[in-house]
Specification:
The structure holds two protein chains of two kinds.
Chain A lengths: L2 E4 L4 E4 L4 E3 L1 E4 L5 E7 L5 E7 L5 E4 L2 E4 L9 E3 L8 E8 L7 E3 L3 E6 L1
Parallel strand pairs in A: 2-12
Antiparallel strand pairs in A: 1-4, 3-9, 5-6, 5-10, 7-8, 8-9, 10-11, 10-12
Chain B lengths: L4 E3 L2 E4 L5 E6 L6 E7 L6 E7 L2 E5 L6 E5 L5 E5 L8 E8 L8 E2 L3 E5 L1
Parallel strand pairs in B: 2-11
Antiparallel strand pairs in B: 1-3, 3-8, 4-5, 4-9, 5-6, 7-8, 9-10, 9-11
C-alpha cells in the first residue's frame, strides 16, 4: 500500500539556520503531496501542496518540490524562526477528490533563539 | 467561520466502555474524515463520510463506527474500548468541489484507563 517515510526527529536548529526535512513516498499511481504542520495543542494545518511532478509548493517561506524520479518531497526553509517550532507531517493523497491522506510519522522541529 | 469543531476536547474512559466523539465541519464542506493519532505518530485514516454514507475505510476493526447527519456533522463511535485506543482523534472536513485541502479540527484526546 501507499506509504510515507520522513526524516526522524527531533530536529533542533538555531534561529536563521537552513532547514531541510526529508520525505519520500511509495505509491502505485500519481499522488498529490502535502506538508502539514501541527503546533502544540492544535490540529493540523496545511502548509503547502503539490499535485504533479516538478510542481513546487510554497508558503510562509517554506518550499517543497515534487520529485517523481526520486519519489521525494523534501521540505526546506532558508531561515527558520522560533515560531516555526512545531511537528511537521508529510502526506500523500492517492486519488484526487477522495482526500484520504496517508501521513508520515512526523518530525518535531525546535528552533532556539 | 468557526472552522472544524470537535467535542469534547478531552475524555477519559474505562476499558470496555463505549465512546462517541463529535465533529462539525467547516461551513460549505460536505465530506468528513476521521483519523487516529497515537502519541508520537502520524495520523491514521479511520473512515470518510459523504452524503451520510461511509465512502472509504482504513484498517480499523468494526468496533469503530461512524455516522454523518443531514447537516454534514459526524460522530465517531468506538465500542469495547481497549487501552490501545488512547489517542488524539482528529476530524477533517473537505468538499469534493473545493479541491484537495482538508481542514482539521483540534481533536479529541481520548484516554482509556
Amino acid at each position: 500500500g501507499d506509504s510515507v517515510t520522513q526524516m526522524e526527529g527531533p530536529v533542533t536548529l538555531s534561529e536563521e539556520a537552513f532547514l531541510t526535512i526529508n520525505c519520500t513516498y511509495t505509491a502505485t499511481g500519481y499522488p498529490s503531496l502535502f506538508w502539514y504542520v501541527q503546533y502544540p495543542g492544535e490540529g493540523l494545518q496545511l502548509l503547502l501542496k503539490a499535485t504533479k511532478a516538478d510542481d513546487k509548493g510554497s508558503n510562509k517561506g517554506f518550499e517543497a518540490t515534487y520529485r517523481k524520479e526520486t519519489t521525494s518531497f523534501h521540505l526546506e526553509k532558508g531561515s527558520v524562526q522560533v515560531s516555526d517550532s512545531a511537528v511537521y507531517f508529510c502526506a500523500l493523497s492517492e486519488v484526487q477528490g477522495a482526500q484520504k491522506l496517508v501521513f508520515g510519522q512526523g518530525t518535531r522541529l525546535t528552533i532556539n533563539p | 467561520d468557526a472552522g472544524v469543531t470537535q467535542s469534547p476536547t478531552h475524555l477519559i474512559k474505562t476499558r470496555g466502555q463505549q465512546v462517541t466523539l463529535r465533529c462539525s465541519p467547516k461551513s460549505g464542506h460536505d465530506t468528513v474524515s476521521w483519523y487516529q493519532q497515537a502519541l508520537g505518530q502520524g495520523p491514521q485514516f479511520i473512515f470518510q463520510y459523504y452524503e451520510e454514507e461511509e465512502r472509504q475505510r482504513g484498517n480499523f476493526p468494526d468496533r469503530f463506527s461512524g455516522h454523518q447527519f443531514p447537516n454534514y456533522s459526524s460522530e465517531l463511535n468506538v465500542n469495547a474500548l481497549w487501552l490501545g485506543d488512547s489517542a488524539l482523534y482528529l476530524c477533517a472536513s473537505s468538499s469534493l468541489s473545493g479541491g484537495l485541502e482538508a481542514f482539521f479540527g483540534q481533536g479529541t484526546r481520548l484516554t482509556v484507563v
